[in-house]
Amino acid sequence: MLTQMIIRKLFNLRNANKRNNLKLSQRCFSSHLPELTKNRYSVKRGNYAVLTEDHKQFFIDLLGSTRVITNPDECLSYNVDWIKNVRGYSTCILKPKTTEEVSNILAFCNDNRIAVCPQGGNTGLVGGSVPVFDEVVLSTSLMNKIYSINDTSGVLVCQSGCILENIDNALEEHGLMAPLDLGAKGSCHIGGNVSTNAGGLRLLRYGNLHGSVLGLEVVKADGEVIDLLSTLKKDNTGFHLKHLFIGSEGTLGIVTKVALQCPPKPRAVNLAFLGLQSFEHILRTLKRAKQELAEILSSCEMIDASTLDVCTDNLKLKSPLSQYPFYMLIETHGSNNEHDQEKLNKFLEDAIAEEYILDGTTTNEINKMKHIWDLRERITEGYTKDGYVFKYDVSLPIEKFYSIVPAMREKLANEDTVRISGYGHLGDGNIHFQVSAREFSQQLLKKIEPYVYEYTSDLRGSISAEHGIGFRKPKYIHYSKSSGSIKIMKQLKTMFDPYGILNPYKVLP
Ligand code: FAD
Ligand code: MLT
Ligand code: ZN
C-alpha cells in the first residue's frame, strides 16, 4: 500500500514549480582546485596571440575598466568549471552589455587572433565553458534584459545572459513558464541553455530547444551580427540557420538574443515519488504512466539507491520513503486538479495492485514537492562531496537504459571507487551515469573511457544526450557521429570561424 498518500485539494498556482533556488555561483572556488587542464590532458596550445597590455587597453576603452576583469583572484571562478573537473588560466574576463559590444570584441579578437571562450552561467558539465589555456572569457552575465513577453502568443524575447530562473519568474506574471527546467536554473543562462541545447526535467512534455527556440540573434567570429530573431511559430523560408547555433557550444558564434516559445503555466501540478524493486518494474511503470497519464504526464525520472544516498548521506536531505533499490518521480501538469489527481491515483492504485510499485507518496503541496524535487535536482551537488566525479550522460535504448551501471560495476570491481550509480531522464531514454572516487586518477579514467563510449555506441546510443561534447569528449564524437557528418561540421566551423578563435579545443576532434 502507499504509506504516505498525501493529497491536498488546494493548490497554490502562483508558486507551483518554484522549486530550485540553488545559487551555484556562491560556491567556494579556493578549495580543491583541479589540476590545470593543459597538464592533466597534455593539450598543445593553439597558435593564438598572447594577450598584451595593448589588447587589454582596447577592451578597457570599449567596456570601461569595471567590465574588464584582470585581477587573478577574481578571474579564478571563470577558469574553473562547476564540478571542478577542468581549469584554465585566463587573465582577462570581458563583460559586454550589448550586441554591439560583443560584435566589437569579436571583430578585434578575430583580427588579432585572440582565442575567446564564451561563458554563460558556467554550470556546463563537459568542460566547455572555461578556457583550456589563456583564452579571453566573454561572459554574458551583464546581458540580462528581458525585452518582451507576449501573453497571447507566449513568446518571450530576451538577451542571452538572462538567468533561467529569472525568466521563469517574469513569465509567471503572465501566466506562462519556461519550457525547460533544470537543477542549475538559479545560475544557468538562457544563452548557455541554447548553446548546449539543454534538456532538463520537462523535456518529455515540452520538447527540446530546437522546438521552443523561435529565433536567435548571433554574432559571428568576425563580429558580424546575424539577425535570426524571428518570433514566428511557422517560417519555412529557406534554411533554418538558428538550429546550427542550438547545441553548438559557442564554437560557431555567440548567441546574444533569444526568442522563446513558452507554454502556459499549469494550473494543476501533482508529484509522485515511488519506491520499486527492479529496473524491470521501472519499465512497466514508465509504459503505464505514458498510457494512463498521457497528456498530463510532464516528468518521468528515475534514481537508483546508491544515487539517492548522495542526497541523504552527503547532503543530509530526508527521503519520504524507506529504502528501495530504485525510485521514480512522476509529475503531472494539467488544468484541472481534481481530474489530474483522479488519473494519478487510479494509475498508482493499479500499479500497486499489480505490484509494480512497492511504496510511494503523492503530493501537490508546494513545500513537499520542493522537498521531493530536491532529492532529484541536488544529485549533481551531492556527488561532488564524494570527491572527483567521472560523469557520463548517454542515451540508450529504453530496455538497456540501466544496463550500463551493472556493466561498469563489473568492469571496475577491483578499482578504488566511492560509488558507481545511475539516475536520469527515464522518459527521454537519457541516463546520467557516474563513477565517483576520492580523487582524479588517470588509471580509472583509462578503465572507464573509451569503454563507456564503446558500450553506448554498440547499442546505437548517443555518447552525449544533453550536456554536449565540450572539452571532455571531442575525441569520442565519432562513436555517435559518422565521418561524413564530422566532415560537414568541420567545414561549417571553417566557414563561420576561419581562424578558429571561438571556443578552441572544444566539440570538434
Ligand atoms: P555555460 O556552462 O556557461 O556554457 C555552456 C556552453 O555553452 C559552453 O561551451 C559555452 O562556451 C557555451 N555558451 C554559453 N553561453 C553562450 C552564448 N551566449 N553564446 C554561445 N555560446 C555560449 N543540463 C541539461 O541539459 N539538463 C539538466 O537537467 C541539467 N541539470 C544540471 C543541474 C546542475 C546542478 C548543473 C550544475 C548542471 C546541469 N546541467 C543540465 C548542465 C548545464 O546547466 C547546462 O548545460 C546549461 O544549459 C548550461 O548553461 P550555462 O549558462 O551555465 O552555460
Ligand atoms: C541532471 O539531470 O541532474 C543534470 O543533467 C545534471 C547532471 O547530470 O549532473
Ligand atoms: Zn540531466
TrEMBL record:
Listed SUPFAM superfamilies: FAD-binding/transporter-associated domain-like (SSF56176), FAD-linked oxidases, C-terminal domain (SSF55103)
Localization per Swiss-Prot or TrEMBL: Peroxisome
GO function term, MF aspect, one: FAD binding
Keyword Oxidoreductase assigned: yes
Role this protein plays: Catalyzes the oxidation of D-2-hydroxyglutarate (D-2-HG) to alpha-ketoglutarate. Also catalyzes the oxidation of other D-2-hydroxyacids, such as D-malate (D-MAL) and D-lactate (D-LAC). Exhibits high activities towards D-2-HG and D-MAL but a very weak activity towards D-LAC.
Gene Ontology, cellular component aspect: mitochondrion; peroxisome
Main location: other
Domain FAD-binding PCMH-type intervals: 86-265
Name assigned to this protein: D-2-hydroxyglutarate dehydrogenase, mitochondrial
Keyword set, alphabetical order: FAD, Flavoprotein, Oxidoreductase, Peroxisome
Sequence similarity: Belongs to the FAD-binding oxidoreductase/transferase type 4 family.
Cofactor(s) this protein requires: FAD
